[in-house]
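Lecture 7 notes: from sequence to structure.

We start with a single chain of 156 residues. Read the sequence below before looking at the structure.
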Amino acid sequence: MIADVREHAGAERIAGYQAAMTAHRLGDHVRVLDAPPTERGGFDAARLLLADRGGVTAVFAGNDLAAFGVLDALAEHGLEIPRDMSVAGYDNTPVAALRTVSLTTVDQFATEIGAEAMRAVLARVQRRDRAARHVLVPPRLVPRATTAVPPGAVAT
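Now the structure, written as C-alpha cells:
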C-alpha cells in the first residue's frame, strides 16, 4: 500500500488494508510505503517499490491520484497492467471511470456522506439538545481493468 501515514484518511485506510490482509491470511505480505497523496507521491513510491519488488503483485494506493502516479511508474518500467501488476486506488474519482484509465478503486459514496452530514446539521438546528449520532456509509470496491488474479494464483 502507498499512503500518507500522517494524514487521517491515510491512517484509517492503512488500518483497513492491514485488517483486510490479515483477515485473508496475507498479513505477512503487508507493506506500507509512506508517500504524499499526490500523483508524484504515488509515482515516486512505486519507483521505490520497483527497485525492490520482492514478489509484489499488486499495489493499493490511498487515493486515486496516487494510483495514477503508480500507473505511470509501472508503464515507465515496461510493466503491463494488470498482467504484471494490479493497481487499485481509493475515492472512485470521475477520472478513474474513464475507459482509457479504468482504474479499480474504492467508492466511498461522498454524496451520500454529504447528505448524511446535512441531515445531522438540520436535526441539530431543529433541536439543539438532540444527541449526536454516528453514521457509517460502507465503501464499495469498484473492480475495473487495472486488477487481475496474479499469474499462478487461484481466484477465490
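The radius of gyration is 18 Å. Keep this in mind for problem set 3.
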